[in-house]
Amino acid sequence: MSTHRFKKLALACGTVLTAFGLSACDLAPTYKPPTFVVPANWHGQGPFATATPADTTLPTDWWKLLNDPLLNEMEATLTKANPDLQAAAERFIQARALVVQARSELLPHLAMGAGAFDNKQSSDRLFRYKGNITETDEEYHGLASWEPDFWSAIRNHVRAQKQFAQEKAADFAMSRLSLQAELASDYVQLRGYDAQIAIYNQSIGYYQKALQITQNQLEHQAAPRLDVARAQAQLYSTQAAELDVQAAREVTEHALAILTNASPSSFHIAPTQVMGFNQPSVPAGVPSELLQRRPDVASAEREMAQANREIGIARAAFYPHVSLQAGGGFAQNGFDLANLANSLWSYGASFELPIFEGGLRRAELQHAWSAYRETRDTYRSKVLDSFREVEDGLSRTNRLDQENHALKKAVDATLATQNMTMTLYQGGVGTYLEAIFAQVQTLDTRIHQIEVATRLYQADIGLIRALGGGWNVKLLPTMDQALSITPLQYDDLHHPQPVGGVDISQHPEAFENLSSAAPSAPAAATGKTLRPIYDQAEH
Fold it and tell me: How many CA atoms lie within 13 A of 57 on its CB side?
């Protein structure tokens, strides 16, 4: 090898090594998530106590704390077949594909091409060239291009896309938690309506007997016709109120059907007479741990990390842009292509440095900085919202638990009052107006107690959701796991390997049967009956 060629080769190698060295220049600011100073304890005090350190975290299947087999089965169906959850998982897969697209810009791009052309001129054309009237041209070639990433603009774009994929994984976890909480809350509401309907039925039976008593009193001229009218009004208004609750129950049942990927027309849950849930023990933990439990907080933090990378990309636009191209092949007016004399090649490089663009690059950098600060503000707002939701949950569960215990005592008192006033009326001592007042108060108190109990269980579910439902930021896929395929992978492209707990069915057509019935598992209150009213009217 001549000295001249050796110098050229050394210069080329040095250029490539220099390019790789410069590519380590990262212009993005050093990223560090904000560190918030938060209180050490919660202000709201819930009726929950942590027994051991092992109980400070919620299980991922937190709904099992309510101890209802039917709810457990519906939650499993939701996690497997809910269309909104499936769509959220697909958005994560799409984000992983964008990571591969961005990373491809770091690698050389290679291409092949071939062509053949056959031209014929008219032999009678005026001023025709006196040569061959037919001409054949064939060629094939290869192309290569590569852009050295001197200022890490491409690398920052790849990192931003990886962080975007992590954001979508957190969004999937939040969507799953929200849907699971919505299903549990709707199911609790359904059982609350069942308990109300049972109470209305019981009261209607009582009022029918009371109406019969007033009619007997009227026949014996021991009571005025006004008492009969009052008894009839009480009976009919209660029957109307029951119909309203029945309609609300049907609407709630329809919502449960949609959440479990079923048509409401084929979905029916057998009613119960009482609410049989267990009161869950919800560990609130400490504020610093909350930031690790909330998927939406993790999503906001990943969005902030992406905005930080965009600053590096905007900065790189101020520096020179270099790209390399090379091509080669064979061409000939015939088919004897594989001949050195018919070879062709080209190579080159382009260099571009912005000089004056009217403030374009500076405006883009200013925009990137502002967008980053906006994400920090959004992240802080999300953290504050998460603390507020936990405080709200603790306050609600504490007050509703106390209210529910007080109302249970009020129910006992009003039931006793209802029976005593009816006994006095039958004995001719009391008035029916007093009996009517006791009946209204008893029914209102019993219905209100069920409503408060329903809200208490729903507040438990809301608190669990506010605490992240057993999720942890460690469950997010790593930056490397965000890649869905390797550069030389050509199989298993339809569905990448699941990572970060985001796993969905590869066959969505399996969920196109929307006529599924409700699960057959027993409810927590199956076999339990409502406490009977001690009716003096029967004696």
Answer: 11
